[in-house]
# Entry
Amino acid sequence: MLALVVLALAGAAGGAQTWAAFSATSANAGNSSAAGTVALADNDSGTAMLSLSAARPGDSDSACVTVS
Amino acid sequence: MTTIRKISLTVLIAGLLAGVAAFGAYSAFSATTSNTGNSFASGTVAIGDNDGGSTALYTSSGNKPGDSTASCIRVTYTGSLASSVKLYTPSTITNGSQFNLKVERGTQSTGVFPACGDFAATSTPYDGALGSFPASYAAGVDGKAAAAAWATSDIVAYRFTITQNDDTTANAHTSVTSSGSHDFTWEARNN
# Structure
């Protein structure tokens, strides 16, 4: 009886056999895409360019900044 | 030892020798029958493309939003077993959301790789962020529409269009953003 059970189990395990497929690949390698850059800066080191206080009509202030 | 004993022993030994001699080796008659020429061989699964082995579909740089590159590749199945072919990338892609990849299937009879010649699209299995392109066979893009099986000498052409996406984030492109080098793999597995 035990032998029959063992045989049945072995049979079931055998039935569960799965087969891996053959496989082959073909590759296209080394693709890349990159963005260009947009970069802009000035030379003010973070400080204000104009500072005008208690001005009356006609008063002016001027300064230069280089943008590159 | 008495004479009687000597005689008895001699007789015994002679008897034993005779017994051995009785086993004298005679070869048997024999006959054979055979079944010849048996063999068992595997079928084949083989796939190739027309990129010459090391030429990429695209290696573009300095792109601005909307810039795109379109290239075509033809994939040929030469195995003897019916197979399922899937397309995926085994590579790690950087800045994947910055680029859009469109992959179209179609037919093509003219044009040398990577030119598209008379490519005519029949379906578009992928059109989305490069970074979201499938990365495994299981998740891969079907080589043919509806995952149809490939037979010996089947050819499918693909057009790859890579486009620089828009990005209005300030200062997001003061240095180069690149996808990094990546590969595309067509993998055939027998059905």
In short: Chain B has a mean pLDDT of 92. Chain B touches chain A through 52 residues (CB under 8 Å). Helices of chain B lie at 3-22. The CA atoms of residues 16 and 22 of chain B lie 10 Å apart.
